[in-house]
Amino acid sequence: MKPETGIMIEFPLTGSDFEKAGEASSKIKRVLQQIGIRPEIIRRIAISAYEAELNVIIHAFRGVIRANIQPDCTTVSVEDEGPGIPNIELAMKEGYSTAPDHIREMGFGAGMGLPNMARCADEFSIQSKVGEGTQIVMTIRH
Amino acid sequence: MILGDACKLLEADVVWGDEHLCSEIQTACGADLMSDVLAYTKEKTLLLTGLTNIQVVRTAEISDLTAIVFVRGKRPGRELIQMAAAKGIPILATDLPMFESCGILFKNGVKGCARRVIPGEA
Questions:
Q1: How do residues A33-73 score in pLDDT, each as one tens digit?
Q2: CB B38 to CB A106 under 8 A?
Q3: What residues contact A77, with CB distance under 8 A and at least 6 apart?
Q4: Interface pTM (ipTM) of the complex?
């Protein structure tokens, strides 16, 4: 069964709250499972949402993650208030990261997040203003 | 291979998930970098890791991994075990180091999950 009218879910995110990091993406994943989206599609949506959610927790002060689930696609958008990304082209390179050591010790900050989001999504866009924040929009077709 | 076979080969303890020992493992991945797990693994993969924070369980859940094996004698804390149980992700623990653990599974036919092992090969 696919949603006929669309479902919009939204979760606030708090910077440095590692206890809850991933909870929003986990809830988005559960909703997608309940409405019967194919597992390989859910996996791509969940991974892109989780990477974007983690980026907010790691780098920003606060943010919000939204999933707009339509019959033919899901759009995940993440907005944060944070330091922004000075050089998006560089940030999109695999292996480039500005994450501090304590993040690396948790197993993240390898510079794979943004390229992985772009790879999982059918459409990917990123906008960022230094000193203000970053917006990412990803669409995955069902 | 099923998870129970991997458990025997690695002389591992089942920390949680006895009822999941019949789960199928198609591939395995040894990593302490969850970023790499998210970027390179396939579903139904067995994750071998030395990292014991709760993000390992989150990563396994998001990536549809079959189970987690903690290597080189690492034992997860109660919070991690509770989260894994809530999400239905089996947890094993072995005293073997990462290299030996991966080697034993590879020798017994478990494949890696790299996107491309040899150029031109899918």
A1: 999 999 999 999 999 999 999 999 999 999 999 999 999 99
A2: no
A3: A65, A66, A68, A135, A136, A137, A138
A4: 0.89
Six-digit token string for A59: 């780098």
CATH number for the domain harbouring residue B89 = 3.40.1390.20
Interface size between A and B, measured as CB pairs under 8 A? 65
Query: Which residue segment(s) compose the domain that B31 sits in?
Result: 3-111
The answer to whether the CB of B67 falls within 8 A of the CB of B3 is: yes
**pTM passes above 0.90:** yes
**CA-based nearest residue in chain A for residue B49:** A107
Q: What's the rounded Cα separation, in Å, for the pair A31 and A28? A: 5
- A106, A114, A119, A120: best to mutate for the B interface, most B CBs within 10 A: A106
Backbone angles phi, psi at A27, to 5 degrees: -70, -40
Beta carbons of B49 and B68 less than 8 angstroms apart: yes
B79–chain A nearest CA distance, Å: 11
Number of domains in chain B: 1
Phi/psi class of residue B13: alpha, beta or left (left: φ > 0; alpha: ψ in -120 to 50)?
Answer: beta
Q: What residues of A are in contact with residue B115 (Cβ under 8 Å)? A: none
Percentage of chain A surpassing pLDDT 90? Answer: 90
Query: Mind telling me how many Å the CA of A112 is from chain B's nearest CA?
Result: 6
